[in-house]
Amino acid sequence: MATVKHNIEYIATKFGFGLVNLMSNETADRFGKFIGRLFSRLLPKRKKIAIDNLRYAFKDSITDDQYDEIALRSFENIGQTFIDMARFKNFSHSKIKEIVHCQDISPLQKAIDEKRGGIIATAHFGHWEMAGGWVHAAGFPIDIVVKIQSNPLVNKLIAKLRGYLKFGQIQMKLSTLREIMTSLKNNRFVVLAADQHDPSESLILDFFGKKASVAKGPGLFAKKQNCPIIPAVMRRVSFEKYEVHIGEGIYPSDSLDEKADLIRMTKEYLAFLEKIILKYPDQWMWTHRRWKINRDN
How far is C-alpha 21 from the chain's CA centre? Predict the structure, then answer.
């Protein structure tokens, strides 16, 4: 049930989104960067987390100024992504196909041709919110697993905005597992953002050479449906110019050791994410506490 606080948050969010839609595309993009920079100042703890994470991942191989610059640009990217979400009704499929480039879609096409669906393992990287819209615009059936916002009114508003991009949405709840399996059985892609800390700590694997708790969901669903995990991200190149990076499909093996196969597949898509994040570090959301387990191990 919506509370007074929820209603205030909803009105403020809707007003802000409405204001953004009065801006030109270029102005909205600049405003997104401004919002990102502003929050980098208003949320010093988050900026500290970002810089600590960068030091952790890059092992002090770059300068303090570079850490600060990457963290700031990461905040800017988050701001741009948030502002673009407010304007999703302006992004038709034809426009998305015009501004997004992908060199090779064969891993996606192969999975659909095999009629087993597929798990797209992605990250909070670049324009992660628009990535699903591009997959749908490219002609592939897709459902994205999304987190339910604590404010039910804001949650409904964000779901409506995502709806403009026409992809399916699976909200995290008790029936999520069943919905994911149904989607895969219907030869659809299911997108899982698999880059953040997994509170269950069910899989402890190296990420940037340090132990991290990694979600086992992508591997489990791939095993159950005998479908591939396809690692993919959308990189923000410049204003209204994006590039999709897709890795080769990671398929379950016939190994009788299911846990070993699960770990192998998970390590493979983590390696893809590591490589792309290291190449374009300012595109990743460094502001979350990725390494919550013992960092000395």
Answer: 24
- Residue 51 has φ and ψ, to the nearest 5°, of -70, -40
Q: Each residue of 260-281: pLDDT tens digit?
A: 999 999 999 999 999 999 999 9
Helix (H, G, I), strand (E, B) or coil at 90: helix
Q: At what angle do helices 44-58 and 25-42 cross, to 10 degrees?
A: 90
Tens-digit pLDDT profile for residues 217-269: 999 999 999 999 999 999 999 999 999 999 999 999 987 788 999 999 999 99
Distance CA 108, CA 117 (A): 9
Whole-model pTM: value is 0.93
User: Cα separations (Å) of 66 from 2, 33, 73, 79?
Assistant: 43, 18, 10, 20
How far is 94 from 133, CA to CA, in rounded Å? 11
- Taking Cα atoms as reference points, which of 195, 192, 190 lies closest to residue 273? 195
Please give the Cα distance from 141 to 135 (Å, whole number): 8
Residue 296 clears pLDDT 70, i.e. is over it: no
The pair of structure tokens assigned to 99 is 């501004």
Written as six digits, the tokens of 73 are 């640009």
CB-CB neighbours of 163 under 10 Å: 13
CB contact set of 250 (below 8 Å; sequence gap of 6+) = 222, 228, 229, 230, 231, 265, 268, 269
- Cβ atoms of residues 142 and 135 within 8 Å: yes
- DSSP SS3 for 156: helix
Residue 239 phi/psi, 5-degree rounding, is: -60, 120
Q: Which two tokens stand for residue 43?
A: 């949320």
* Angle, CA 247 vertex, CA 244 and CA 253 arms, to 5°: 150
